[in-house]
Each structure stands twice: as structure tokens, then as C-alpha cells.
Specification:
By secondary structure, this protein is an all-alpha fold. Helix content is 63%, strand content 0%. The longest helix is centred in the middle third of the chain and has 17 residues.
């Protein structure tokens, strides 16, 4: 790692490609960290660069998010996976949506950017206390259960009621190995 925080051999080809993509997407402010992330090879490079440059929390998390997700989502051309990615978080879905919008900038996906920008994040139809009443664990593991149920909900086009989601709770608890043992 060079003194400036960038990798010894920054990914210049990716930077040029991303810069062209960013120029093609109109109608949104681009975070400066978005093209800078293209110079990085791995999420670990983003961490190292942050140690040198002391990004804001938003910039640090965005750089990490972009380097972590760019390859997997490069060839995705449907809105639903990006909507799901916006919800796949234990933190703020609104903030994660901003990261996903930057990922769309990164790849020059103008039409999907516009669609996701206009998309209103729907309210998740079930609360944590209801999950606890039906056997979900309290504390940090509840967030894991909720996140898995959000993925089920998203896979069903965000069109599931509380009873529908509760029907998936046993399978989610089993998947996360959180089912209560009698």
C-alpha cells in the first residue's frame, strides 16, 4: 500500500470505465467517493484508504459498499434486486438506498437509477415485538430474523401481510439456527 492510501497499482482501467458511466447518468449528484472507489480492488483497500484520508462515516461505508457489491451487481438489469439490496441491512433502509443509487451511478444504469430514485420504500408490515411473541429471540438476533423476513417480503414483491410473514418465521428461525429447542 502506497503512502497516499491507494493500492500500489490502482485500478485505473476501472476508474476510466466508471467515470464514463457516471457521465452518462444525469439527474443525480454523484458522491466523489464513487469514482474514487473504482481505483480500489477490494473492500479492504477501502478500509486502508479511509485510515489515510479519514472519510466521513457515509463516505467510508459507501466506499466499502461499492467495492463489496460492484462485481455481483454489474450485470443485473432488473429493479427488484436493487430494491432488495436497499432493504438488506440492519441499519437505515433510506441510507442503504443512497448507497444502491451510487452503485447504479457506478455502473451507468440510468434507467434503473431513475426507477429506484422514484421508488418509495414500503413499510415493513410486522414489528419486532410481534416476532418475539411468536418465538423470535430478543436482542441483536432479532435484527437477523427481521432482515431474513424482509428478504422473503421483497422476493414476494413487498406484497405480504403480517400473517403471511409469520408463516415464514419457523423456516427463518431454522435457517438461522435460532429455533427454540424443547
Amino acid at each position: 500500500m502506497a503512502v497516499h492510501g491507494l493500492p500500489e497499482k490502482p485500478n485505473v482501467e476501472e476508474f476510466v470505465r466508471v467515470f464514463k458511466n457516471i457521465e452518462s447518468v444525469q439527474g443525480g449528484d454523484i458522491q466523489p467517493i464513487t469514482p474514487l472507489s473504482a481505483l480500489l480492488h477490494t473492500p479492504e483497500d477501502a478500509i486502508t484508504l479511509n485510515l489515510r484520508l479519514k472519510f466521513t462515516v457515509f463516505e467510508r461505508e459507501l466506499a466499502y459498499f461499492l467495492t463489496q457489491n460492484r462485481d455481483e451487481f454489474e450485470s443485473v438489469n432488473e429493479l427488484l434486486p436493487f430494491q432488495q439490496l436497499s432493504l438488506h441491512t440492519l441499519g437505515s433502509a433510506k441510507l442503504k438506498k443512497e448507497y444502491v443509487l451510487e452503485l447504479l451511478h457506478y455502473h451507468g444504469k440510468r434507467e434503473l437509477y431513475g426507477q429506484l430514485k422514484e421508488w418509495q420504500i414500503p413499510a415493513f408490515p410486522i414489528k419486532g415485538n410481534v416476532l418475539i411473541e411468536h418465538g423470535a429471540p430478543k436482542g441483536p438476533k432479532l435484527g437477523l430474523v427481521m432482515n431474513e423476513l424482509k428478504m422473503v417480503w421483497a422476493a414476494n414483491q413487498f406484497d405480504m401481510s403480517e400473517p403471511d410473514l409469520l408463516g415464514h418465521l419457523p423456516a427463518v428461525l431454522e435457517k438461522l439456527d435460532l429455533a427454540r429447542k424443547s
